[in-house]
Amino acid sequence: MLSYLLRRVLYAVPIALAVSVVCFLLVHLAPGDPINAIVSADTPADVVEQVRREYGLDRPLPTQFALWLGRVAQGDFGKSIASGRPVLDELGPAIVNTLRLSLGAAAIGFALGTALGVAAALARGRWPDKSIVALAAASVSVPHYWLGMVLVIVFSVVFNLLPSMGAGGGGSEAWRWDWEHVQYLVLPALTLSIIPMGIVARTVRGVVLDVLGQDFITTLRGKGLRGGRIALHVVKNAAPSVLSIMGLQLGYLMGGSILVETVFSWPGTGFMLNGAIFQRDIPVLQGTILVLALIFVLLNLLVDLMQTTLDPRIKRQ
Amino acid sequence: MTSAPDTPLVHVRDLRVAFESREPGVATVAAVNGVDFDLAPRETLCILGESGSGKSVTLRALMRLNPARTTRMSGTVRVAGQDIASASEAQMTAVRGRSVAMIFQEPMTALDPVFSIGTQIAETVRRHEGIDRAAARRRALQLLELVQVPSAARRLDAYPHELSGGLRQRAMIAMALSCRPRLLLADEPTTALDATVQIQVLLLLRELQREMGMGLIFVTHDLGVASEVADRIAVMYAGRFVEEAGVSDFLRQPMHPYAQGLLGATVHAGSRGRPLVTIAGAPPRLDRLPAGCAFAARCDRVMPACLDAMPALAAAGADRSARCLLVTPPRTALAA
Amino acid sequence: MNATVLHPDADALGTAAPALSPIPSTSAAAPPERGYWRTVAGRVLRDPVTLACAIVLAVMLLALLAAPLIAPHDPYQGSMGQRLKPIGSPGHWLGNDELGRDMLSRLLYGGRLSWFLGITPVLIALAIGGTLGIVAGYAGGWVNMAIMRTTDVFYAFPSVLLAVAISGALGPGLANAMLSLCLVFVPQIIRVAESTTTAVRNLDYIESARASGASALTIVRVQLLPNVLGPIVVYATSLISVSMILASGLSFLGLGTRPPEAEWGLMLNTLRTAIYTQPLLAMLPGLCIFVTSTCFNILSDGIRGAMDARQ
Fold it and tell me: Using CA atoms, how far apart are residues C238 and C19, in angstroms rounded to an integer?
């Protein structure tokens, strides 16, 4: 098994490399002279020349990539055109905020989704099942940025229960898990949790139905085991598939939070990305996407490894 | 039928099992249509029949293992003194695995793939006897040795997919015997095994049954297997017993045309050079049973009276019965 | 035996994702005849929910196509004095937007663009991805490796992120948005096409066709395609709702469609500030996206279920 795990880890390396190539090429996708994507318009000419040489813009593409990769490996993602500060400085707190949001959304979505999925599987064919399936279908069809707006209307505008934007005062360092701060998290997390909830509900329902239809369930009943013990068997059989879907969802939550963060002005990576697009701040765009994509690759790898450890059929090769 | 001197281990009268469907336009399937038999405490009964004859359903009905929501069961069923038909589900979970246990046909799918076989054996014991994990594990080891699994200690932690078919089936037998049941139900346990392994498992079963003094009801479609294991044979067709007899009486002289057809259809060395005998036609649909004898359409000696009403299972000699007007003419038959 | 692929779409996230049921069985002994599709259609139409969705979509499509005929006002004409009129105002049944333009007209015209952005990238991705996937599945070997490894790289990005990254780098605009959406969907369709083709390719009847001397092209055309296209197309239809939401999302972010064009996602963006004064009005474009997307999803689920349920 160790060699199998090692192979999976090693396989992630070329993927990560390819991902960084794609991110690197983003700069060159942008129309116009790439130098304009890196420095702001009012930079003095000699600084421009220096940057051009530093980034190797007059050298062939592979050399530029190597230079860029080297800098990135040292944590130098360049400077934001808009603010002039190193990209990494702004990225750090943003990632933490997105993590808070994603984990909150994941907690809500996964818990609710699992509960609904199990309920649907146990009530197969009857109305609770049908309504949960319909609910799940709706939840993966809803434009969540629109849903966010709807929730803002209901909870902020009409009932004035929750704040409509931001993450509370004091910046990221001042975050505490108290109501004063968490109240800002509620609506965005709820909004972001809808789609994972629907997907998890459908997955859980499918997997549980699948397991319940297996022959060994009859054997378990034939042994006189009670419901609780049979449930343990179902859970252990269902876990690999369900957990891997959850892992993937977490990755998507982290990478795809931009729309919700925009609606709620939640100061995470998505919000940063939005600003970068608006201001054509390519270094920030590049850096953010690179980091998010690498996190996603890492998460996928972890999910793969976890699935291997959980399912004894894969374990022994 | 045997008149057991002691109370029979299994007492079944007029067992009927039907499966209903929620979907409109799908008729109810009458899988078992009136089965009666008794089983003495250390006796082996073999239920012989082809696919769809209702034999597996009958077996599961003895433990109420058929899917609860769609099954309609009626009749009297008493196993080891316990009234099965009217017991609550909670009572049934205490009975299953303890006084009655079952082994299944396909050990690969009948075992949970993500738990070791040691755990699966131990959990049965822990459920019914409440002992701790270590003691249950020791018991599982003893059981694996009892069913002659080599390197039993190592195999305790093996997963089903790591074992061969024969070993898996032995593990399942160990699981079934773990709480010393009084009745063992076996649903075609050797059908999925290689021929050589089949014999070994059959002999093991017979030996264990004798050692532990259990009753055994064995379902199969294979005459050879039946003749090896059974004391009595019951032939099942379209949800009913059509013949019942001691194994040697049956093999020497089957009485029901269907049973005769089965024996005549066996392939053996003497068949070389001669056309194989088959029974023409196919079993009737269980959702549309005919009013008369269910075998009438395929019988080569059918009489007009056969189509009127289902013949009763009536005595056809010492200790045997058959459900056929040729064997037990209408005048001596009891009402069906 | 179902070709149960780990639905590449258990992913497509950040936005919507199609059903998670396995890809329909392809173990037919021969390419499905006309009667099969008629049975599938029959099953689909008999389910009331799926039928309702199909009808809703058909009605909407007709309305959008007829927009130039039935829209009461010019979607680009507005006056500031008429801004944010509520729903039910005389002459403007669905109210006016923040620049005084008639909502109903803008929704009708906007729908054309939203549907276009939803369907076109999927069609293009189906053509490109389907071909590549089938080729990869049938050829095997290093061709398969080359195509699938490249696909893996794109799979390393969450869809929303990829779309935003490419759109963001290229800049706003309809063509750029469509390009980035295509790049998101092509890998997904390649995966489904490849796994379906691989599953079918290994079935016995393909072997016998090859043994009887049929050329690869003939086999693909006669035996493979009819069995493989069904599941691939069904998968693609489930992507339509994703595409619509993603496209509108891009417009919402300021990529994709630019003002003064009417498009549901863009309208949601520009109406954001109106949620404090005219909340119901501001919700309308999103409602349209939601309804359309749900209907497409349910319809595609229904078709998949009908294909699966062959007895």
Answer: 8
Q: Is-contact A134 A141, C-beta < 8 A?
A: no
Q: How confident is the model over B79-102, as a mean pLDDT?
A: 91
The pLDDT assigned to C7 comes to 34
Answer whether residue A23 is part of any domain: no
Interface touch A236/B114, C-beta < 8 Å = yes
Contact yes or no for C265/C251 (Cβ under 8 A) = yes
- Give the structural domain span for A67: 32-76
The distance of Cα B12 from the centroid of its chain, to the nearest Å, equals 13
How many angstroms separate the CA of residue A311 from the nearest CA in chain B?
Answer: 7
CATH class of C36-67+96-306: mainly alpha
Taking an 8 Å cut-off on Cβ atoms, the answer to whether A293 and C157 are in contact is yes
Compute, in degrees rounded to 10, the torsion defined by CA atoms B18, B20, B24, B26.
Answer: -40
Could you tell me how far CA B170 lies from the centroid of its own chain? 18
Rounded to the nearest angstrom, the minimum Cα separation between B286 and chain A is 23
Taken in order of first residue, the domains within chain B and their CATH numbers are: 10-99+181-335 (3.40.50.300)
User: Band of the pLDDT at A117, cuts 50, 70, 90?
Assistant: very high
Give residue A296's pLDDT band: very low, low, confident or very high (50, 70, 90): confident
Of A125, A229, A311, the CB nearest to B22: A125
Q: Is there a single domain that holds both residue A108 and residue A53?
A: no
Asked if ipTM goes beyond 0.95, one says no
Q: What string of DSSP letters covers C108-151?
A: HHHHHHHHHHHHHHHHHHHHHHHHHHHHHHHH-HHHHHHHHHHH
Give pTM, 2 decimals.
0.82
Q: Is the Cα torsion angle B227, B232, B237, B239 positive or negative in sign?
A: negative
In a domain, A82, yes or no: no
Question: Which residues in chain C are closer than 8 Å to A15, comparing Cβ atoms?
Answer: 152-153, 156
- Tell me: do A255 and A199 sit in the same domain: yes
Among A14, A41, A76, residue at a domain's last position: A76
User: For residue C281, which amino acid is it?
Assistant: L
Size of interface A-B (CB pairs under 8 A): 77
Angle at B232 between CA B229 and CA B236, to 5 degrees: 100
